[in-house]
């Protein structure tokens, strides 16, 4: 599975985004180390705090189905620019591996690949709890 192909899965995943408040559709696709893909979209809520981002939808789907070894996660939106994960999603991605690759695209064929550790420098993790 190439980075571009995973990104295309994220593009497709935003089809089901439930975004009546922001109208900002986001799709995500997680690739596991054994080659499985879990996709997700953002799901909004009239009580805004109940909103779940696309990245966490995809990750929680994978984890709840017994797979938590992640290689990469791709993220797509409609805005014609690179959409990077929000702070909460960065923390959740970091929880499952400091070297997970974040794949973003601009929708015009340009792709960027950046390890989560670079998006969350000095990130807090379970290791800190045991010091
Ligand atoms: N959103 C995501 O799904 N992922 C991101 O990385 C950025 C933000 C969603 C949350 C909300 O539904 C909408 O985008 C606007 O913030």
Detailed description of the structure:
With 131 residues, the chain is α+β, with helices and mostly antiparallel strands. The protein has a single domain (3-125), classed as Cytidine Deaminase, domain 2. Helices cover 30% and strands 23% of the residues. Strands 2-1-3-4-5 form a five-stranded mixed beta sheet. It starts with a helix and ends with a helix. The model has no long low-confidence stretch (mean pLDDT 97). Tetrahydrodeoxyuridine (THU) binds at residues 19, 22, 24, 26, 42, 44, 51, 53-55, 75, 83, 85-86, 89.
Number of helices: 5
CATH architecture: 3-Layer(aba) Sandwich
Small ligands present: tetrahydrodeoxyuridine
Query: What shape does the CA trace take?
Result: globular
- Output the radius of gyration: 14 Å
Q: Can you give the mean pLDDT?
A: 97
Give the CATH superfamily.
Cytidine Deaminase, domain 2
Which structural class fits the helix and strand makeup?
A: alpha+beta
User: How many angstroms separate the termini?
Assistant: 38 Å
Short recap of the structure:
The protein has 131 residues and is α+β, with helices and mostly antiparallel strands.
Question: Topology of this protein?
Answer:
Layout: H1 3-13, E1 26-32, E2 37-41, H2 54-64, E3 70-77, H3 87-95, E4 101-105, E5 111-115, H4 116-119, H5 126-129
Parallel strand pairs: 3-4
Antiparallel strand pairs: 1-2, 1-3, 4-5
The chain binds tetrahydrodeoxyuridine (THU).
Tetrahydrodeoxyuridine is lined by residues 19, 22, 24, 26, 42, 44, 51, 53-55, 75, 83, 85-86, 89.
